Structure formats: C-alpha cells, structure tokens
User: Fold these one by one.
Assistant:
Number 1:
Amino acid sequence: MTLTASTTDSFTDGLRIAVIGGGITGLAAAHHLAMANADLQVTLFESSRRLGGIIRTEEADEFLMELGPDSFITNKPGGIQLCEELGFADQLISTDTRYRKSLVLSRGRPRAVPDGFMLMSPEKPLAILTTPILSLKGRLRLLGEYFVRSAGAQDDESLASFVRRRFGAETLDRLVQPLVGGIYTSDPEKLSLRATLPRFLDMEQQHGGIIRAVLAASSSKQKQASRIAEAGARYGLFATPSGGLSQLVSAIEQKLAGCPGFTLRLNSPVQNLQQDTQQDQTAWLLETFAGRQTFDAVIVTLPTHAAARLLSDDSFADLRQELQQVEYASSALVISGHQLSDFRDRMEAFGMVVPAVENREILAVSYASRKFPNRAPAGHILLRTFVGGAMQPELLDREDDEILDSVERELQGIYGLHRAPLFAEVIRYQRAMPQYHVGHTSRVLRIEDQLKKFSGLQLAGSSYYGVGIPDSISSGRSAAETILQSLAADEADPPR
Ligand SMILES: Cc1cc2nc3c(=O)[nH]c(=O)nc-3n(C[C@H](O)[C@H](O)[C@H](O)COP(=O)(O)OP(=O)(O)OC[C@H]3O[C@@H](n4cnc5c(N)ncnc54)[C@H](O)[C@@H]3O)c2cc1C
C-alpha cells in the first residue's frame, strides 16, 4: 500500500511517539510529528531543565551572547524552511555587510582570505596570485591544479590527501586546514571528503579538477548568481534570529505547547530503551527516573555515544558497536567583551581562523558583534574564541583560568589587546563535535541497515548526515517522517 501524507494522518491517530533529546534535532522532529497529525501523542524527553541543547543565548549589560552556535547557513533548506513554517522568518537577520570579510592568521598577522576562495575552490585567480598568505611557489602550485590529472573514481579520501594532491601542501596548511577546521574542528588527515565536502570529489571526477569545474560552471553560474542574489537579498548566506538562536527554540516550544497531544518532560534523562517483546505489535519501553512508559515509536536525537548507552540490550549489540565507533572532538568557547579602543587592530571582519602551523593556542576568533548587529553596546566588541578541537585536545585539560589567560595572551599578541576584558567566560563542549572520519558515509549506511531490524526506532542528529543546524533539523524531520510512514503502514496492514 502506498501512503501519502493525508493517509498517514488517519492511520496514526492516537499513536504514542517518544522523542529523546530536546536540542534542535529533537525539537524539529517533535514539531514535524505534531504538525503532521494533531491526534498523535508526542512526548519529548530532555535530561536538562531547558530546551535547545547546544543552542543557548544569554544577555547581560547590552551584550547578546551566543554560548553555542551563532547562526545557520541558508543554502541548505532545513533552517529557513522551519522558520518559515513557524511564521518566524521575519525575525531573521543577515550578517552585517560592512564587515563581510574573513581572515586567516598568517605568520602572526591576520590577513584576508583571498577573494572568491570558497573553502578550496579558487574563483578569482588574480586574488590567488596576489595573496601574501602563500609563497610565490605555493600560489603557482595552487593555480597549477588546473594541470593536475584526476585520480579517477575515489570512494573516499581524507581532506589532507585530496588538497595536497591537487593544490599542494602549502595551500592545505595555510588556507584549507584552518577554513575547514573552523567548521569541523577536525584533523584534516582523518576528515572524510565524501562525508563533508563531496562536491569536490565530484568536481574532480566530472571535470578533471576543481579549477576546471569552476571555469565550466562560470557561465551557468551567472544565472545561478542572480538566483542566489534574490535569495541572498532576503536572508544572506548566514542567518540568525535578531534576538539570538534561543528565540528559534522558544518559537518551536511555544508552537508545541499549543498542540493538545504534545507533552514536554524536562529534567527527564532517558536511561534505557528496549523493545517490548510481550506485545503482538512492536512497542518500545522507555525508562526514566519516573518509571517505565510504553511507546509505539521512538526517535533518539542524542550524540551516538549517548544513544549507544541507552541501547544496552543485547539485541542492539551490532548497532551499538557502530554507534560507538563515531569519534567526537571536544572544544571550549571563550566569550569575552571588550572596549574597541582596547585593541590596536580595527577588528573589521567577521572573524579569523588559525592554521595549525601557526602553533597558537586558539583555533579561531569570531568577531560576534561585527558579524551580526546589536550584539554589543556602541564602542564595544564581543568575541568568541575557540580552543581545543581534534588537533589540540590537551588544551582542554587546563583549568578555566588557564584557558582564559592563554586566550588573553593570544589576543594581546595578535590584535594588540592592551587591557583585560570587561568580562570573559569559558563554555566547554565535551565530545560535542562529531568527527566525520574517512569511512563515515559507509558507517552511516551500516547504521541505517542495522536500524531496519528495529521497526519504530529512528536515530537523528548531527552525527550522521551533516554537522550544522540545518542538517540537524532536516535529520530530525526526516526521522519523524520515516516513523509516520512506518507506523501508518503497520496500522494499514498490521504485521501477523
Ligand atoms: C561550540 C559549537 C558551535 C557550533 N556552531 C554552529 C554554528 O554556528 N552553526 C551551525 O549550524 N552549527 C553549529 N554547531 C553545530 C550545532 O550546534 C549542532 O548541529 C546542533 O545544535 C545539534 O543539535 P542536536 O539537537 O542534534 O544536539 P544537542 O544540541 O546536543 O541536543 C541533545 C539534547 O539531548 C539531551 N540529552 C542528552 N542525553 C539525554 C538523555 N539520556 N535523555 C534525554 N535527553 C538527553 C541534551 O541535554 C541535549 O539537550 C556548533 C556546535 C558546537 C559544539
């Protein structure tokens, strides 16, 4: 039987679905379920006393601080689509065009990333030829990518291997590693190109190289550019709510609160999950401190290491083993407020990434109040400095005070900061950043295969198909849709 959105409605009336984890993935999943059928009984379990997970916005003394992510990319549909469904899109703001520039630390000095250099695709050869970030030899080697032969069909390859092979070691060390590292906080020797930036593998296979692909795309690109310009005029490449990302969390929470079938359980860590074998139809037993509850389906939106802990029953042994193999990096974020006049540098950019070869104790600095308006009072600046990640895990063994001292020293050395910050705070993220190592795509396929054994169980979140907010939202929605389809199919044609 083929089920459509309208047929799933009547078949899923009154069914009980648990969503575990109240971060953006769990919220997106719960929202999708509640909007699909108001008669579903959806319960969201969150271990802490607040929703949002990694997303957290705070305000103090006219500083508006993002303690986790600060925005989301708009060229992936998840974030914008959800905001539009919530009637929330008019709250979104774009980056401040006055400071739209990214910097990379180069031999101790912040310098502009060459114009048109998008992660590793050089759109403007002249900008490459004149950048002081690379030596003359490095620049010629980068542009010489045009002549490098394709390696043929590659299933997967590490970022480092690909960039070294195509553009040379200097481009890897001085540009691509910090730019990509800024997103994934990963070791480029291990990072899977297939799982993170597959378009570059495809460009090589289809056009023989990246520069060749860029040239081939340039004519059709002009048409595309006008389309992007239209979309960009509405949102820009990065968007965020004017009052910070927690506003988005509140908007979802409010919408869910108005759904009669929705129940929110805060302070409710789920401890165990198992199939109920006593019943004819598949049912799921979920255990919290409050006791056991039965559900028809469950969506788990936790990092894979936490999901594996819930699935302790022997029947999950193979699935658990795959989940435990996904590695995570930890990082710390130092949020600091300053007077602008306390810097020698003018700080006129969105931020700076730091190559590992610079041997610094910071990964990147986001100039938060330059990127988005109304994040700091006039004459002040709010910075978000990232520390640790997969390349420098040892820095997180330090006490908070040591991290604050080291960040202040780095800001002094790089920007000529000559006074202590007005305030500074360390926020730690333990094992929060999934590492998509070579082979990640195959592992996720194996996880999907394992899941097929357990009707009514779905996994979602940033550990599988993309690490950002739009990916997490799409993953939550897609898990919810899969559950709706499978429950409706079971109701329409019950298993004997
Ligand atoms: C420092 C940092 C900066 C980032 N910056 C950006 C950015 O600028 N833009 C962007 O797009 N992405 C960014 N990301 C990624 C983005 O934050 C994530 O993709 C997204 O927030 C993941 O949401 P989630 O719901 O999957 O997980 P989480 O936010 O981790 O939510 C999981 C939830 O589950 C709860 N939980 C855990 N165990 C249990 C249990 N046993 N029972 C019940 N509940 C439980 C937790 O308390 C938590 O609330 C950043 C990530 C980090 C770490």
Number 2:
Amino acid sequence: MWRSPGIFELKLHRNGMPFVPGDCVALFGSDEEESRPYSLASGRDDQVMSFVIRRMPGGVVSTFLSERKPGDEVRMSPPFGWFRPGQAEGNAPSVFIATGTGIAPFMSYLNSFPERPPVKLLYGVRFLEDAVDLDRLQDLCDLRLAVSGESVPGYHHGRVTGLLEQVPISNAVHYYLCGLDTMIDDVTIWLEKRGVPVTHIHRECFFNASYGS
Ligand SMILES: Cc1cc2nc3c(=O)[nH]c(=O)nc-3n(C[C@H](O)[C@H](O)[C@H](O)COP(=O)(O)OP(=O)(O)OC[C@H]3O[C@@H](n4cnc5c(N)ncnc54)[C@H](O)[C@@H]3O)c2cc1C
C-alpha cells in the first residue's frame, strides 16, 4: 500500500466487478452502515480495484480504511457514477484538471485507455509527496504539476489555477475537473470567460473548502 502522511492507496479484490473509468463505489466504515463514495483509480482491465484516499482528521470512514491490513474485509457497493473523463462526444480531445485525490478518476482513465491521453493534465497537490504515481502519469501524458505548500524545482509553486494559461481553448475540447470545489468553481469561471460552452465542462466535487479541508 502506497502512502504519504495524508494520502494512502487502498487495494481491494475486484471479484469480476465491471466498472467504467470515472465510477465510484461506496465504501463502508467499521459499523458497516455508514459509507462514503470513493472514485476508482485502477483501470477497467486490472485485477484489483484501487483507490486514492485522503485521511481526514477525525474522519469516520477514511480513518477506518487507512487502518485496514492485508486480508481485512471492506464492505463495498456496486460501482456507480456519471463523471466520464475523456468519454464525451465519441472520445473528443480532453483536458483533465485535478486537485489532491481528485486525480483518481483520471488515473482510472489513463490506466484504461493509455492510447488516448488527454491533451494536458494539470494536477495540484499541497506537497510533492502527495503526488500519486507521478512518474507513471508523466510517462502517460503531458502532465503539469502545481505544488502549493512548498517550492519544488521544476514544478509550479502555487495553486493549480496558476497553470491555466497552458490550457488550450477550443470548442473541440472537453474539460474535466475533479477535486476541491473552489478549484472547480474557479476553473469553470475561467473557462466560461473564454467562451467554453458549459456542456464541455464536466465536474466532480470530492471536497468542500468551507468544511475546513
Ligand atoms: C463523488 C465523490 C467521490 C469521492 N471520491 C473520493 C476519493 O476518491 N478519494 C477521497 O479521498 N475522497 C473522496 N471523496 C470524499 C469522501 O467521500 C469523504 O467525504 C471523505 O473521505 C471524508 O469521509 P470521512 O468519513 O473520513 O469523514 P467524516 O467523518 O464524514 O468527516 C470528518 C471531518 O472531515 C471533514 N469532511 C468530511 N467530508 C468532507 C468533504 N467532502 N469536504 C471537506 N471536508 C470534509 C469535516 O470537517 C468533517 O467534520 C469523494 C466524494 C464524492 C462526493
């Protein structure tokens, strides 16, 4: 299991469960009654289902999941979802923008369709150690990383929105945003100001800044 102090990877047996990149499942906590949605990060042909999860301070389900050991069981719902990175309009060219664990659905897409990378992937993290599978993502697509909490040579220091000028603007492109609500709102406004139709902006919110995350 890969992990940084704040983020960990969880791997579960797939048991033949079909899913589409962008799907979530509900994972349950210790009482097997309370659940939260988590986006799949693995590819559609992988034998395991993997997740990239942020451990929330005092979080009921994320803490429980972070403490699982190999062989432990975790209750899971069937996959569901509506966010479909790279899959609109007959796989039209795409730009992906993620913060934190919002990278998960884009990893699932890239693990499923490595032959159809996005035009660009912008990825924002607080610290470099929180960047998941960086080398592999860099191999698979044109990745631009923003690190807000520390200065790292070679990467943008600041929010991922500081990289937006690198995003190509075209009516042929679909834009997929995933992660923190403030990033999603700021990028949506930025794209709309440049004439991108709202039907080409696809959004999946994992976290709300107003919760104090
Ligand atoms: C469609 C969808 C997909 C998601 N996929 C992922 C994923 O792949 N990886 C991942 O790490 N998370 C993902 N999440 C977030 C996840 O579902 C939980 O909200 C998160 O793990 C917190 O649950 P918890 O039980 O640990 O915390 P809780 O016990 O519910 O809350 C603990 C504290 O954490 C804070 N908190 C809880 N939820 C949020 C929130 N959404 N935003 C801001 N602060 C919050 C609050 O301050 C709260 O008091 C996704 C959410 C959605 C809606």
